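Record 1 of the preview.
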Amino acid sequence: MKSVEFSTTTTLPAAPERVFEHLADPGNHVGLSPLVVEVRDIRHEPGAVRFTAVERFAFGPLRHDNVIEVVLRLGDGSITGDVVSPGGVRVAYGYRIDAAPGGTQVVDHYRLSAPFGLLRFSVGQAKKVQAARGRELARRFAA
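->
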């Protein structure tokens, strides 16, 4: 299975602790990714949060709800996780959250692998989600 890595960086006008808390709360993930339409079954553990997320994919008039189990591992200035989706698509992702002039810099990194035939579609979707997440974070933390 082939693997692809990519990152984006967003600077937000907020303290790193505030950004970390926002990203560590599964309830804030609805709408943060344009695909995530529901979060449920939130379970807190030492150093981690587990939850079920529903991703909605639309293909013209058709839609598919993809139910995934998510683990957010909470580190010192970082949040990491991995997801296995149907079809063998695997995503390892992470946020590096650091103080920056005027606020916080968030590096949003993905490592995605998928079987032949799904890789191009999966990478395209993930990059759209990543770009939208940066815009939504900027909107949420504006003024």
